[in-house]
Amino acid sequence: MRKTPIPQILVGLGVALILITGIIHFIDAPDNLSESTLKGGLFIVNGLAAFAAAYGIYRNAGWGWLLGLLVAGGAFIMYIVSRTVGFPGLGVDDDWLEPMGILSLLVEGSFVVLALVALLRYRLTAPEPAAPVTPQPHNA
Q1: Alpha-carbon span 111 to 49, nearest angstrom
Q2: What is the reported pTM?
Q3: Which of 46, 51, 120, 131 could disulfide-link 25, Cβ–Cβ 3.0 to 4.6 Å?
Q4: Integer Cα distance of 24 and 11 in angstroms
């Protein structure tokens, strides 16, 4: 499969969005640690993974975009889960309009869309047709 380079503007935007996702999770980690060690720990892991994804994206590595999708998409889904069915031992968080939560959803959703565009349009393009192989004559 042929790999087409992702335009630098998309790379820069991807790095910025996933870094903002990580920073938001680092900022919210202390409050979540006081609520639950597991939940706070997941916020820290999310932040670290976001920074790793940013590095991968910057280096034009496909794994960076995939890790970013996992980080941003997973956080987006977990926000909704925490406010609908809740997590074991924590119950349902009824604060849908928390400012950092809304900002996080906007950033994560934007990253997911950008990553899908980057991966599907530029990274995972159609395979190149194979060039015909012609035998070379032997000079003996």
Answers
A1: 14
A2: 0.83
A3: 46
A4: 20
**Confidence at 135, pLDDT banded by 50, 70, 90:** low
Q: Which tokens hold the place of 4? A: 């087409």
Dihedral sign for Cα 126, 119, 63, 42, please: negative
Is residue 26 within 8 Å of 47, Cβ to Cβ?
Answer: yes
Question: Of the candidates 60, 63, 65, 28, which has an alpha carbon nearest to the alpha carbon of residue 45?
Answer: 28
**pLDDT value of residue 126:** 46
> What are the extents of the domains in the chain?
8-123
In this prediction, residue 132 carries a pLDDT of 63
φ and ψ at 92, to 5 degrees?
Answer: -95, 130
